[in-house]
Amino acid sequence: MIRFLTRGLIAALTLTLLAGCSNPETPQEVAAAFWQAMAENDADDVMEYSTLADTAAFDGYQRSWTDTVPSFGRVIIEDREATIVTRLPAEAGTEGERLELVTYLVRFQEQWLVDYNRTGEAILNPSPFNSIMGELSRLGEELSARFSSSSDEFEQQMEQLARDLEAYSEEMGRQAESAMDEFGKKLQEAMRELERSVEEALKDNEPTPEKDRVILEQAARDLDRQADELSDPTMESLANASRTVAETGERFTRLSEDTLNRHRDEWQQKLAEMRADADEFIEQLRP
């Protein structure tokens, strides 16, 4: 929670500083100014910083953005187009999940502008990945509290992986099929190994509380089912697998201390290997 509040404060400070600049120039500055205008429901400024041609066409993407403070992630600039990963909070007054999308920008007459229609498409017609993002975000605190800082870092990595899959689905479809296939095979085998380890824990001669057995049996079933889907990996199956692995880590935190301590080192090692594979995969996606 603290890290999310910190990010929000940093983003708010960034927007405040940028608001003082009369002419945002970089894609990041223009995106920040655009979302600030959205938060203020200022159709004139939205039109100034985007491709919106008429204030009468301003619809706010059919949401209320009042006081919304986004955070920004990876930026890709390719000639006269740019994309910025943008993370928006749930709509005010709802219990929805954080919205992960891409702010698209185009270079027009030597000025960067947010592509109003293309950016809005991700909001008006969200992809199936959106539900994954909020669910993954909720796992972090309990993981760090009981499993280890290493597992918390792993969960963050898998969360970021799912975000990258969401944000760069088009680029992956065109450029990264081989990397996706390779990572899918590695992740599938790693999940199989973790599944076997969990099944061996169920056969442990040491007494295992019934509650722990239920947790481990469910973890093994989920790992098996999701690993099957990686036989022909897609962006969706990779994101789902990332979620399943993160959920498995969350389940481990609910085990009794005795059960967890007996298998902690082995499971942490397997999770570390998955994290290394995820790091390599993400590096291959970088422009």
TrEMBL record:
Q: Name the PROSITE patterns for this protein.
A: PROKAR_LIPOPROTEIN
Q: Which residues form the signal peptide?
A: 1-19
Which Gene3D superfamilies is this protein grouped with?
Apolipoprotein
Q: Which UniProt keywords apply?
A: Coiled coil, Signal
Q: Has the keyword Ribosomal protein been applied to this entry? A: no
Looking at the record, which segments are called Disordered? 227-246
Coiled-coil residue spans: 151-204, 257-284
Q: Which domain of life is it from?
A: Bacteria
Q: What is this protein called?
A: Uncharacterized protein
